[in-house]
């Protein structure tokens, strides 16, 4: 048995070339990789046996001649994806193209603790697999997004402020021991940024995804890659101090954090003080949609506060796109208007010349698609495919 390191590009690289459409045929693969025709054929056969590729329809075998053109088979395996929020969760089974085959939205309190929450996730994954006509045997991995700081390498949440009982719980190991496939754990905003970038803005190399929900956070795509920083704490803009008369105490223990002033939880509390029934961010959104002027005013002001912080971040990072998502983004243009007003007004002209500030196009699916994407990209990485297919 040989491998790609000794013999030039392996099956994994051939698969990624077919997947991104750089080549379709044996001849094109030979030309592109410099491999011999027999080596290409050997690796193509192995990919066909593993069903990661299929003969292209217009080049199906006929008259005893083997097919010459091939397509990536996005139905070869499925990915499991979970986007866990503070109060609700979205789970899905997707194909290798990130298309959702079955999904479930549910109210779920993360403060139930890790074993109870993950037990529910596991049961729901099994149900969704059955609904989509698959079994655990078809699964290539699971991606899980958590609403707090995550050490990506160990797959654990670290001192999450709104997740009692989760600190350093081995989420990755707990889940992979039960489903027997790789499990990848990340911060919810990071997976949203990945999902939006991958599905909607693959050509945008520098992008910020700002999640505005109960809390506020930011996922960063730099040079086309997710930027986590040294320990995974990059983009934590919710705890940047904003100049305000409001001496609001933040859940992190500090005073005057952006999140404590402009997050959905803060707006709901302020509307309660005004005598309105608002338990959480979704109630704030409901009031805005009903045209409540107090709620509209507060959401627009929240957009300005967030925009004030983003103006500095935009000058520092110079993204091409700022995408606003999360529950409060459902309030529509009022939040976006406040953000735009501050960013375009305060950042340098060169930084805003081509900058687009828009609402997330994936909406509440950004997290679950991003969680699937982490799994798919991990599974289809050339070195991983080479390990599965050693020819
Ligand atoms: Zn804070």
TrEMBL record:
Gene3D superfamilies: 3.30.420.40, Winged helix-like DNA-binding domain superfamily/Winged helix DNA-binding domain. One of its GO terms (molecular function) is kinase activity. InterPro entries: ATPase_NBD (IPR043129), ROK (IPR000600), ROK_cs (IPR049874), WH-like_DNA-bd_sf (IPR036388), WH_DNA-bd_sf (IPR036390). Keywords: Kinase, Transferase. Pfam families: ROK. It comes from the Bacteria. Belongs to the ROK (NagC/XylR) family. PANTHER family: GLUCOKINASE, ROK (REPRESSOR, ORF, KINASE) FAMILY. This is Sugar kinase of the NBD/HSP70 family, may contain an N-terminal HTH domain.
